[in-house]
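sorry for the late reply, my laptop died twice this morning and i had to redo everyting from scratch. anyway the thing you sent over, i finally got around to it. pasting the sequence first so we're on the same page, its 129 residues, then the predicted structure underneath. double check i copied it right bc i was rushing
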Amino acid sequence: MHTSDSNGVANSRWPDALEELAMSVRTNGFDAYGYHPDTILCSAQVSNNAGDCFQVGQFTDLKGQCSWLLFTWPPVYYLVPPEIDVLDVCLAVLRMGRYGGKVFPDSIVDQFQLVRMSNKEFNDAFGFD
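ok and here's the structure:
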């Protein structure tokens, strides 16, 4: 994932934490790739197997706290508590296979103590309009 510019200086498509997460997801047999400069898309679909996908990113809220968030469409955001390993959450969702792609099941939300946020709550907390 690291490349070098014309001066031989290493650079990456994503921040190191996202790059590491994407590589770990792929190492576990799933797909992960850049979606936006600050997010990756994780997918249970490998080859022609069906599966749902979600985005993952690290965002800094208005209080300066950096947090991992997973989000689905339309969107629904899930704040990952700092003591929870985001890779564990990603793999648990991916291992479920098809879940409908809109909201994570309560069992996943409860197991990892995820905080479900609406689009407005996300925008208010992280300063997006």
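The CA atoms of residues 13 and 37 lie 7 Å apart.
thats about all i looked at so far, will dig more tmrw
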